[in-house]
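Quick one - inputs below.
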Amino acid sequence: GQNIDQPTEMTATEGAIVQINCTYQTSGFNGLFWYQQHAGEAPTFLSYNVLDGLEEKGRFSSFLSRSKGYSYLLLKELQMKDSASYLCAVKDSNYQLIWGAGTKLIIKP
Amino acid sequence: GAVVSQHPSWVICKSGTSVKIECRSLDFQATTMFWYRQFPKQSLMLMATSNEGSKATYEQGVEKDKFLINHASLTLSTLTVTSAHPEDSSFYICSASLTGGSYEQYFGPGTRLTVT
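Output:
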C-alpha cells in the first residue's frame, strides 16, 4: 500500500529552528509537496521537490532524498504565526496526491 | 498566484436536505478539480477528482449518488451533498490544478457544513 509518515505533533520555541520529517512509500514518485494548514482554514502551498536536494525559500526549506523515500521541512526563526499543521503529500505514478496525516506544530514563546 | 474561491464558506442545513457547494478558479482555467473532506484533527481525504466535461472519478468508499459533482466549465465545479445527514458534517475543500500532472494544487478556503 501507499503510506506517508510524519510525526503527529511537535513543539518548538519562538526564534528557534524546527525540522519536520516525512517518509513515504508510494507506487511511483512525481514530486513531493509541503503545505501549511492553519486551524479551520484550507492548506496553502509551501514547497515542491522533485529532484534530490534542498530547496530554500525564505525561512522555509525543504529537502528530498528519493532513494531514501525521505523529506524534511525546515523552519527557521520560528514565529508564533508558524503554529499550524504541516502536510506532506506525494504524487504517485498516476499523479495522484497521497497525503500524510499532518504534523501539528506548536510554537511557545 | 492562482486563486480559488468556494461558496458558501459555511452552511447549516437540516437533515434530509441537499446542499450545493461551488468551487471557482478565478484567474486561471482549471483542467482538473479535486474535492476533499476533512474531519476535525484529521488529514485531508480525497473524495473525487473531476475533469472538465467528463464524469468525476470517485475514491473508494465515496457514494457518487450522494455526493454529486459537476464540472461544467474550466472555472467551475460544484459538489452537491444530497439528503444530508449529521455524519456528513465536515469541512469540504476544493482544489484546482492547471493540469493533472506535476503542478501544485491551489486550494479554496473551504466550506464548513453542519447538518442538524
